[in-house]
Amino acid sequence: MTRLEAPALRALPLGELRPTGWLRGQLELQAAGMAGHLDEFWPDVADSAWIGGAAEGWERAPYWLDALVPLAVLLDDARLLSKVDRWINGLLERQDADGWMGPRNPESTPHGPYDVWPRMVLLKVFLQHYSHFSEDRALQAALRLSRRIDAVLAEWPLHEWGRVRWADLVLSWDQLHEITGEEWLLEAAERVRKQGYDWAEYAEKFPCREKVTDGRLHEFENEADDTWMNDRYLASHGVNVAMGLKAFPVWSRRGEPEWQHAAFDLFLARLDEFHGQASGVFTADEHLAGTSPAQGTETCAVVEFLYSLATALQTWGPVESIIGRWERIAFNALPASARADERGHQYDQQANQVICHITEDRVYTNNGPDANIFGLEPHFGCCTANRHQGWPKFAAHLWMRTAEDGLVALSYAPCRLETVLSGAPVRIAVSGGYPFADVVRISVEGGGAFPLQLRIPAWASGATVAVDGAAPVPAESGSVVTLHRDWSGRHAIELTLPAPLQIEHRTHDAVAISRGPLVFALAVDEEWRRIGGEEPYSDWEVHPRSAWNLSLALDPAMRIERRAVGELPFTPDGAPIRLHGKASHLPQWTLRHGAADLPPPSPCPGERPLVEVVLLPYGAARLRVTEIPWHTPEVLR
Questions:
Q1: pLDDT given for residue 52 in this prediction
Q2: Nearest Cα to Cα of residue 389 among 458, 307, 469
Q3: CATH 3.40.630.30 corresponds to the domain 1-6+18-195
Q4: How many Cβ atoms sit within 10 Å of the Cβ of residue 201?
């Protein structure tokens, strides 16, 4: 009999933790922008076949709902909650007698009349809804749909997208099993795993060790074995890779957790080595694309990567390497993927992104001419619907429950939470402006005795913890400090997390500079040009108004400027922290295939005179140079 090992951590029920400060501001921008209004104007959601319309009936409405439910609950937004009710009711009313939900395909497809993949997303929607509302009707609908999916897969095994994304289905079935006790779900999950793609073998062999070119994609299409052709093609697709990482923590609950964790680490190491970027993501435009900082990363890959990492944290606990990457992606690649007002996004973002424009001569593996402009639906509409899950799901996992009926802080973005531990109510609030500031303040009220675990990031040099005004106690970087005491009454904790500048050498020995979880990039003055679409969701190109081809005078004494954390921290004007340095011009560094060419090999002095430059957090600069050529200051003295 299959048995699930208990996870190290459990997510708080949706709504027990709510964002505050700048993080709430990000979610409010989403509510006022595309995420909160797609169902009013975008046909693929507004007229979706999922609720009886004539538009797209595949993945886009489920994608949007997968974000709308947590967004509405975390903000406690009456307008969004009413949308959730309308959609959930509409789906439940249309569930077929056999349990199936949504449109059926023409029977000539490889799935017969059934495509399981988008139902995997829908199950996540119902489980999030149940986590907050505890409505049995949604739970029973999810069980009926799961029964039907199991029957469908007996006749039409997983194919294409579902085959490589099988871990999402198993994750939902595991959650359903833990809620309902239905044993058949675990047996069904075993069958799904056997039909799914072998991500463990992929991690071991890692066949994609260079940029996947159009020629290689055509080779995949000519494979004699159609199933192997599909797997090879789809397993080089960036979003599938980001989702495939989830397979290891999901399956490790059935045994061999150490082996699964090691395979997960190997997978990440291979991605970093062959396709890694300074922001913590890997290139995928649309397929894996090598280490050039001009290659792009699809926005869907960014948010799915975040969700896979959150899944790993629940399974294995507060592993610093996983938390560090989770934060790095959330605080850099996630905000960089969209306009600051959340009314447009990119399909692809680049580490060295010096122009965002429509171009036929392009660097991408196989994405279109408009893939890196900001708009409603650049290149393809999956990200239009799917990208909104990033901030709500990150916020919902800032704190989790431990196996000892305590709480652990994984990240210190501002929030408040109210929960019950051992029958006693607990209230916690986090403030301080993290990750832009080095001091975190945590108030704890009520709850009696329980263990409170505080993560000390690996980058924090000289970290301290002080409780109720006592003398600060040193805390080891990369550790988890456990405070086990009676928390009755009111208590105050202050964390000091000093973050030194760190320099990472990358392609052609260019440098990437970070401070704590924030990556910094040379900021390029931006000229936004509206090129089409309808306001407020127009399409925009972004052109440089200042030189981007510079060599940084690599001086560890760069001046740090701090400002108050305001409403728009991920903008050039609103960035609360910035670095000031000097650079020289590199006229030989130019555009190639519509993007910045590879950085010239460093050290690279450039031409006199030196100019003043500003480095902004990656997520605040839509035009930026993140992998920067450099020279020592003495060269030009």
A1: 92
A2: 307
A3: no
A4: 11
